Amino acid sequence: MINASEWQPNQRLTPEFMSLPAEIYRHDPLWPGEDPLSIEQQFSQQNPWFEQGKAWTGTIPGKARLVGFLPSHLVEGQKVAFFGFWETINDLSCNQHLFNALAAWAKQYGITQLYGPINFSTFGQYRIRLNQFDKGAFAGEPYNPPYYGALLEQLGFSIKHRYTSTFDDASTAADNWSKHYQRIKRLPMPDINIHPLTPALWMREQHRLFKFVDRLFRQGFAYTPLKWDEFQQRCGERFIQRFCPDSSMLAQTASGDIAGLAIALPVYRDGKAETNLCKTVAIHPPLSAYRCTGASVQSVFSIYSPALSAHRRGDDA
């Protein structure tokens, strides 16, 4: 039986919705878990997203859950819907029922194009992992059972964009960065100061970071512009405290403007930080020649309904 309806932010998520992921990943020691308080807050009246957006939830108890989102902005010039918070057993039939119900709801608003997984916006969790499942899970990055990609393709989805992450051991990464440094040090060096990105520095420079992030990422697929209060809520002190203050860096010009940032995320095993994931590197475009880049393959899928005609773009992002 499907429990599905348009979401009202004064509601509470059902126990069936909240408990399903723990069942899906009960035998997976690498699953990073969910934060129930964060999820409850995202679906509440405290989330400014609901001032303009609409949501839908669907659950088949013990089998699958799905959320639909109608963002207020256009994606590539069109009104679209997102799906997110998708968790499921490896069963095509129950997902056909859920996604058909979501498509019918979106169609009521004249929308037939669906992208995901995207939890509210690309500032939240989005994409799925397609390989390298033995490499572990990183907070803020996609992690899911290996069968998710095949299920989406059976449901009629196709890959819209691919995103890559590179897994290197420390010695290989250090050697690559050293070689890159030897190349860029021959360039005229800009007047830039680099500081450890501590929570205190992040909070002190939040206004500059807000403008920098919006400018750098607004060309990304399905980007959702954030208001200042949304940025504070999503990217405040609790957000930055997850990252390593010793290997995360902020680059600033002599006038204090943001030139770039690198955020590293500790990866824990048995309660101890075993290594770091270089999660985000962002460089002010005029300084892109000084970038050191490196990034499981992850994807955003798209579907055109109700005909379910699969559309594939070859360009990667």
Write the layout of secondary structure elements.
Layout: E1 3-6, H1 15-24, H2 36-42, E2 54-60, E3 64-70, E4 81-88, H3 92-107, E5 113-116, E6 128-129, H4 148-154, E7 158-164, H5 170-184, E8 192-196, H6 199-204, H7 206-217, H8 228-234, H9 237-240, E9 249-253, E10 258-269, E11 272-283, E12 297-304
Parallel strand pairs: 4-5
Antiparallel strand pairs: 1-2, 2-3, 3-4, 5-12, 6-12, 7-12, 8-9, 9-10, 10-11
- Distance, first to last CA: 38 Å
Number of helical stretches of at least 4 residues: 9
Instruction: Outline the low-pLDDT stretches.
Output: 289-299, 302-317
Q: How many strand segments?
A: 12
What structural class should be given to the helix and strand makeup?
A: alpha+beta
Structure description:
The protein has 317 residues and is an alpha+beta fold. The protein contains 9 helices and 12 strands. The strands form 2 sheets. Strands 1, 2, 3, 4, 5, 6, 7 and 12 form an 8-stranded mixed β-sheet that branches. A 4-stranded antiparallel β-sheet has the order 8-9-10-11. Strand 2 (54-60) and strand 3 form a beta hairpin. The radius of gyration is 20 Å and the shape is globular. Mean pLDDT is 82; it is low at 289-299 and 302-317.
